Amino acid sequence: MHTKTIVELAEGLRNKEFSSVELTQNYLRRIEKSDLNAFITVTAELALAQAQAADDKIAQGKSGILTGIPYAHKDIFCSKGVKTSAGSKMLDNFISPYDSTVSHRLNQADLVMLGKANMDEFAMGSTTENSYFGKTLNPWDAKKVPGGSSGGSAAAVAGGLSCFATGTDTGGSIRQPASLCGITGLKPTYGRVSRYGIIAYASSLDQAGPMTKTAEDAALVLNAMAGFDAKDSTSAEQAAPDYTKNLQDSIKGLRIGLPKEFFSDGLDSAVAAEIMAAVKGFEGMGAEVQEVSLPNSKYAIPTYYIVAPCECSSNLSRMDGVRFGHRAANPKDLEDLYLRSRTEGFGEEVKRRIMIGTYALSAGYYDEYYLKAQKTRHLITDDFAQAFKKVDVIMGPVSPTTAWDLGAIKDPVSMYLADIYTLSANLAGATCSAPRFLSIQTVLAVPVAVPNSKLWAVAAVCAAEVKDWIVPSVAVTKK
Amino acid sequence: MIDEPELKQIAYLAKLLIADGQSEKTAADLNNILQLAEKLATADTSKISPMAHPLQMTQRLRADEVSEKDQSELFQSIAPKTEKRHYLVPTVIE
């Protein structure tokens, strides 16, 4: 049961082969036996209540495609009455008083939340080793990292602990763990999915999306998540398309662009071979492949690691030990309360990024770092606009290698370098002004197995915002 | 490059404490990251405007009406310390 997709489980529920309660109990048993540490909190009681409610709806003939499907919710989405920690000691005692819009919409779809998935603290990391609640293991090889920051979500799906999961992606945090765990991850267009109630890391980059077993499942979940939300001031004021509508379309004549900068020296040869094999497969189905160039992608890592820390240093200033979260014991004055609450509550990587952001935003360095990075971000975005004049989608690797050993990368800068292929898409995000309308928006990671290993590589498919529905459709064709 | 006095200043602005004996390592880590950022200086951005955000939109306005009921009791129920509907902090003014 635990290997089935949403579509298969929905059929089983409809045909009364099993109930949602039975399905939920099965997953809860698997979670209990698992040593992957994919969950920070398991919400068994809530899950069984939601499953019973779903079964009632199915019996009344009022169910939708997602009714009664169990999922893992990244612990960055506020869930009313449930601990929402963002993987941090700072929020270890934070019981959210409200639901994020995504949580609300998933509840409205009658889904069953099994629990809150492990993650790098405040989504800062590429391995899930930065969680206050311990590292998550890769289900394919327990000595390897699952990727991050949505590593708990990816491990839960790949390890058969949930049918699908939610994730957030600021610099690759959905696509990269999907890649390292061999599942499908979709980072939607910036503005498509409401950020209301998602604990903020870098507000101009953060975007939530589904992590699933297939592109078809990703389209189904995105349909439930996406859409305008007045509570999010950066929500795109346009109706979201039906992402399942074009899933069966032919890809004959589809123009695929391969960025030459993404197939250079740093890319592992086995990964490159598998990505190219996937591209050949598309070509065999009638797609036209051509080389494109993203010449400013060489600035993606330094641009991201200035922009994101600047935004996080501002966002995380709300964690001060006064209104919620960790508070240091016996503060001698207000300053001592701030200093010790934050020092005790945040982990090392979070402190590092807050300090880099604080430095880059300070009076003497603002122009040199933050303003400069905003300009190079513009260059990167323009590259995508140029590329999308020639092609419908861009394909390339997500991670330069397959999953690496736990603890293998200790130096922060070496860890940042692993994000090379994912950052550009976040930086280009969702430029919706008329002259740059065609900017990279939706990115989906499609798994391809690396032969002679238990590990996976993933081909990313990116499309312009005006036709982001094409992304699941391209991916599903590959099945 | 960040030296020790500057590190102290940044940490103070960020309201963080650097543990004893950690200054050198912390400064080295931050300097490595800044070294990575130095590559940006090689980009010609003389004719490029800064991009703060991917959505080119203006802030939406709404009618000046109460849209949410008072939930201060609920929100204060998760606060570390409150008294008479106020958040409590150590005394600031004697």
Tally of contiguous helical segments of chain B: 3
The oligomeric state is: heterodimer
The level 1 CATH classification of the largest domain in chain A is Alpha Beta
Tell me, rounded to a whole number, the average pLDDT of chain B: 93
Largest interface: pair, residues per side:
A-B, 75 and 50 residues
What's the average pLDDT of chain A? 89
Q: Detail the poorly predicted runs of chain B.
A: none
CATH architecture term of the largest domain in chain A: Alpha-Beta Complex
As a whole number of angstroms, the C-alpha radius of gyration of chain A is 21 Å
Structure description:
The complex is a heterodimer of chains A (479) and B (94). Chain A has 479 residues and is α/β, with parallel strands linked by helices. Chain A contains 15 helices and eleven strands. Chain A has an eleven-stranded mixed beta sheet with strand order 1-3-2-4-6-5-10-11-9-7-8, sandwiched between helices. Chain B is flat. The two termini of chain B are 41 Å apart. The longest helix of chain B has 15 residues. A two-stranded antiparallel ribbon of chain B has the order 1-2. At the A-B interface, helix 9, helix 10, helix 11, helix 12 and helix 13 of A face helix 1 and helix 2 of B.
Summed up:
The complex is a heterodimer of chains A (479) and B (94). Chain A is of the alpha/beta class and 479 residues long.
Question: What's the structural blueprint in terms of helices and strands?
Answer:
The complex is a heterodimer of chains A (479) and B (94).
Chain A: H1 6-14, H2 20-33, E1 39-42, H3 44-59, E2 70-74, H4 101-108, E3 112-117, H5 151-158, E4 164-169, H6 175-181, E5 184-187, E6 207-212, H7 215-225, E7 255-259, H8 269-284, E8 288-292, H9 300-315, H10 334-345, H11 348-361, H12 367-390, E9 393-397, H13 412-417, H14 423-428, E10 440-449, E11 456-464, H15 470-477
Parallel strand pairs in A: 2-3, 2-4, 7-8, 7-9
Antiparallel strand pairs in A: 1-3, 4-6, 5-6, 5-10, 9-11, 10-11
Chain B: H1 4-13, H2 23-37, H3 72-76, E1 82-83, E2 86-87
Antiparallel strand pairs in B: 1-2
